[in-house]
Amino acid sequence: MSASTTRLPEGRYGRSSDERADHKLKIAGAVLGALLLAMVGYFAWHYVGQNKISAEVITFEPGKDSVQVHLEVRKDAGASGYCTVRSQAENGSEVGRADFRFSGDATRIDKVVTLRTTSPGTTAELLGCHAD
After folding, report:
1. Contact 92, 54 (CB under 8 A)
2. Among 88, 82, 85, 81, residue whose Cα is nearest residue 70
3. Cα separation of 9 and 3, whole Å?
4. pLDDT tens readout for residues 70-113
5. For residue 87, which of 53, 43, 124, 59 has the smallest C-alpha distance?
6. Rounded to an integer, what distance in angstroms lies between the CA atom of residue 119 and that of residue 99?
7. What is the DSSP letter of 13?
8. Rounded CA gap, 61 and 130, in Å?
């Protein structure tokens, strides 16, 4: 017995419906990929370009009812804003949180601030800085 094939000759009757569907999926994938890339680029520009104040904790000195925090703040000239700092006790509970304001024309500020706590704090953590 011989097997009979019902396959049409190549290229004689146009593209199959599977090839048309594959082409549409490739176009849809390219459009969605371009949109995703544009969205990632926008958020990256917004985060880097719009973040006018940044800071880091250089050192801290815990005390009985306060924590001395040495902050180094970098900002655009003339920008003003605030940085939020918190302290936690040895068991992990938050014992103090405060916002410290920074303004003026200086682009780099070294400042020692005092964070008052409700009980002895063992850490000083910078939660973030925000421009006005």
Report:
1. no
2. 85
3. 17
4. 999 998 888 888 999 999 999 999 999 999 998 888 889 999 99
5. 124
6. 19
7. S
8. 24
CA distance 113 to 129: 15
- Amino acid at residue number 127: L
93-103 tens-digit pLDDT: 999 999 999 88
Question: How much is the pTM?
Answer: 0.60
The 3-state secondary structure of 77-127 reads CCCCEEEEEEEECCCCCEEEEEEEEECCCCCEEEEEEEEECCCCCCCCEEE
Contact 129, 73 (CB under 8 A): yes
